[in-house]
Amino acid sequence: MKYYSIITLISICVLSGCSHGQSGNHAVLQQTEKIIDEDPNKAMQMLYEMENAQNKPGEDGDKSDIEHSRLDTKEDSALFGLLYIAAIHKIGLEIRNDSLITNSVDYYRQQKDYTRLAKALLHLGITHQSNGRWKDAVTCLKEAEGMIDDCNDKVFCYDVYDAIGNLNAAANCRELMLTYYQRALASATAMNSNSRKAASLNKLIRAYIHQGQLDSAKVYVEQAKPLLSSVERQVQSDLLVSFGCNALEEKDTVKAKQYLLQALEVFPNDYGAKRMGDIMEAEGKMKEATDYWFESLNTDHIQVRIEAYEKLVQYYRNREEWRALDLSEHLNRLYQSIRVNDKAETIAALQKEYDHRLVQHRLYRNLSILIGTLVVMCIIIGAFYHYHRRKMKDYREVLTRIKDLQKELNEEQKEPETPVDLSLMDTLLNDETVRYFHRLADRGKAPDDESWKDLYDLMNRILPDFLGIVNRNGMLSERDIRICMLIKLRFIPTEIAALIGESPQTITNRRARLLGKVFGEKGGAKDFDARIQKLQG
């Protein structure tokens, strides 16, 4: 509830600030829009910083310096509202106030900006669901779904299917829930996003476990296992908890306990804590059980909190009556906060009706397109004779020019650079020290100074000139040199981030800057990686 209150207050302040205030932040908003899908936390930070800048004067108290960053245009206000609400939802929070996102929907509908309108409708639908306005949520989400083909955005496609799956899960529309989670999984697979694929698999596993379809759950468990090492620790923890729950349903308590303990070690997990508490209860270890149940009270999942409260009330009822009464009061308030949803059939019917209208609309549109196509074909056929002569003439000219260009390219083609000795690189990449660094990166741990020294010694032994070449100007820090070494040893950015102790985005920025420091060139992180790989040792 604290999150909802804080976010609502911020939304009201932002909306009032947008109406009086700052605009030249359009470039910042566009930059935020580019990164929000993959780094919503960074996007939220940028929006906060932009909003806070509205209240800061320029040098010597002169406010003229910020006049160019006023959000006094409707376009900037609408984009800010869309990005702000989208960042909240992508981080995993809820917001009840819908004024910002409603303003964005109205603006983009008026401007006929259908790409952003679709995204605004998605997040307005999610907000309606948070407020218990199920019909409005269905209307917005289904309208957003109908715009998927027009947007041609794979991330948006995934987000829509996932949101509609969540809506049906909350409304107990189980068949539709599974359908949309499977569509979300297909979208995540198509875009080759392991984190989104893992999230969809996790939801499908838990859905099938809840419905008692353990064979189906096991199929998705096997699909999820290879993803464990390639996703963030929080997602790893969620998957491991699902594996543990599946093992519990299969009566394999030993394996379930292993999975759950591993999950809690990887990342704090309230649902995992609840299930561990249940296992401890079954083993008669009530002290450990109550500790886990208390830990699970912090979860945002209401059903998990209810089950944890019920377990604690039952335990303390005959031991510490005052504590049992206090827990019962919390439990009753939680019961009262739940919106009893007995409208599963109604919500399913609304979606079916919308799908029917959408099919009719598409048929009408396709018919219009067909008629238009026939008209165009008639025009083309009527002009074909004259067009054919001109086309053949142009074709012969193009062929002649292609031959001339091909001849010039053959003459100017340069001999490729000599690759690094493959045997040396094979020795490096298979050295035990390098493998040890890979294992550390998989566990998200940074090496100690002695390990770094071993890596330096290895590089100096196999590629004695490498470190001298990259730092020939003496401009690199210790961290920069380590990044150069790890790139040479073909560590991926997420591994480098874990070993260096920085975020993947920071490592990407460092690599781009190092291209200028080491080689005096401009370009991106991949350009730097390519140059490092070509360096001789």
Topology of this protein?
Elements: H1 2-20, E1 22-23, H2 26-35, H3 40-52, E2 69-70, H4 74-91, H5 99-111, H6 114-130, H7 134-146, H8 148-151, H9 154-170, H10 174-190, H11 194-210, H12 214-224, H13 233-249, H14 253-266, H15 270-282, H16 286-296, H17 302-316, H18 321-337, H19 344-412, H20 422-429, H21 432-442, H22 449-462, H23 466-470, H24 478-488, H25 493-500, H26 504-519, H27 525-534
Antiparallel strand pairs: 1-2
Helix pairs in contact: 2-3, 2-4, 3-4, 4-5, 4-6, 5-6, 6-7, 6-9, 7-9, 7-19, 9-10, 10-11, 11-12, 11-13, 12-13, 13-14, 14-15, 15-16, 16-17, 17-18, 21-25, 25-26, 26-27
Highlighted features:
537 residues, mainly alpha, Serine Threonine Protein Phosphatase 5, Tetratricopeptide repeat, 5 domains, two-stranded antiparallel ribbon
What would you say this structure looks like, in words?
The chain has 537 residues and is mostly helical. The chain folds into five domains: 1-53 and 72-151, no CATH class; 153-268, Serine Threonine Protein Phosphatase 5, Tetratricopeptide repeat (Alpha Horseshoe), CATH 1.25.40.10; 280-337, no CATH class; 342-373; 422-534, no CATH class. Helix content is 76%, strand content 1%. The chain has 27 helices and two strands. Helix 6 (114-130) runs parallel beside helix 9 (154-170). The longest helix is centred in the last third of the chain and has 69 residues, at 344-412. It is globular, with a radius of gyration of 29 Å.
In short:
The chain folds into 5 domains: 1-53 and 72-151, no CATH class; 153-268, Alpha Horseshoe (Serine Threonine Protein Phosphatase 5, Tetratricopeptide repeat); 280-337, no CATH class; 342-373; 422-534, no CATH class.
